[in-house]
């Protein structure tokens, strides 16, 4: 007997790629469970699936930086912190210090759907009842007919896991001028923010202010303390856009709208920015 649950949850996270650096991603999770019927004539109660299995996924990977442990990186733990130092692409650098729960360590040379599926199945399987004999996971992006970009950020004012300094999303983007969709402008912004790190100006610091990591020449740096602890970041400036505001999706949409309004002052601007799947913000200018 097979039980299935589509759209069980969405994993919003970033992963480190040796070529692209930190990549914001949003994957929808579909689940199947194989097994015999229990005393309630079920493989597993849907309520338990949505509560127990979803919680394991959310607590383990969601809103973290997933790190491929077989890649050429330096990852150490000191006190309650995890410290990452790595190079990516031809010349880029990334260093991060964060509380331990801000990182997911994945035993793979690269992060892709299958590597994450293997990791999650290993976490979930020991916690399933004995009548469940097999499990399948499928990870997929949201279907989209529009342009999108991958972004990473951290929200120091957030009480939850969004405060983690490198987590991210796959963001679909809509731009309209005077009510007309503008695919050309959508592509321009998708290209501008491909694999971007969005940094709030108020969180930017000098390299000398970092306490746990070391910046390289050409890095932009960030440091803040929030409810989960202390966070530090140094990343190649070419991969960053500094915003004069917070990097919530509301502020991102408004930033885009104001930038476009300056470019098209005689037009009514509408920006629809997504934060992962099925949620986001609309801003007008």
UniProtKB/TrEMBL annotation:
Q: What class does this enzyme belong to in the EC scheme? A: lyase
Q: One Pfam family name from the record?
A: PTPS
Family matches, as InterPro entries: 6-PTP_synth/QueD, 6-PTP_synth/QueD_sf
Signal peptide boundaries: none
The reactions it catalyses are: 7,8-dihydroneopterin 3'-triphosphate + H2O = 6-carboxy-5,6,7,8-tetrahydropterin + triphosphate + acetaldehyde + 2 H(+)
According to UniProt, this protein's pathway is: Purine metabolism; 7-cyano-7-deazaguanine biosynthesis
State the EC number(s).
4.1.2.50
**What does the sequence similarity comment in the record state about its family?**
Belongs to the PTPS family. QueD subfamily.
In Swiss-Prot or TrEMBL terms, this protein is called 6-carboxy-5,6,7,8-tetrahydropterin synthase
What is the organism of origin for this protein? Pseudoalteromonas qingdaonensis
């Amino acid at each position: 007997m097979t039980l299935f649950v589509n759209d069980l949850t969405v994993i919003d996270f970033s992963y480190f790629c040796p070529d692209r650096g930190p990549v914001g991603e949003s994957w929808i999770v579909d689940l199947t469970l194989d097994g015999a019927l229990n005393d309630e004539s079920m493989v597993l109660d849907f309520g338990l699936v949505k509560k127990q299995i979803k919680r394991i996924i959310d607590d383990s990977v969601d809103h973290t930086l997933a790190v491929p442990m077989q890649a050429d990186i330096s990852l150490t733990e000191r006190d309650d912190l995890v410290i990452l130092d790595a190079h990516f692409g031809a010349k880029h650098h990334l260093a991060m210090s964060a509380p331990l729960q801000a990182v997911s360590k994945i035993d793979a040379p690269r992060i892709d759907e299958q590597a994450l599926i293997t990791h999650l199945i290993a976490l979930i399987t020991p916690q399933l009842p004995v009548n469940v004999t097999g499990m399948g996971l499928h990870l997929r992006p949201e279907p989209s007919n529009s342009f999108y970009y991958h972004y990473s950020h951290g929200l120091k004012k957030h009480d939850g896991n969004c405060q983690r300094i490198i987590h991210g999303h796959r963001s679909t983007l809509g731009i309209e001028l005077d009510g007309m969709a503008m695919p050309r402008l959508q592509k321009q912004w998708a290209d501008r923010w491909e694999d971007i790190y969005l940094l709030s100006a108020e969180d930017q610091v000098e390299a000398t202010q970092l306490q746990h990591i070391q910046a390289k020449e050409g890095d932009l740096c960030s440091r803040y303390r929030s409810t989960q602890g202390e966070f530090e970041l140094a990343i190649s400036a070419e991969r960053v856009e500094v915003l004069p505001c917070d990097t919530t999706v509301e502020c991102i949409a408004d930033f885009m709208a104001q930038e476009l309004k300056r470019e098209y002052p005689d037009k009514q601007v509408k920006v629809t920015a997504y934060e992962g799947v099925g949620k986001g913000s609309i801003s007008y200018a």
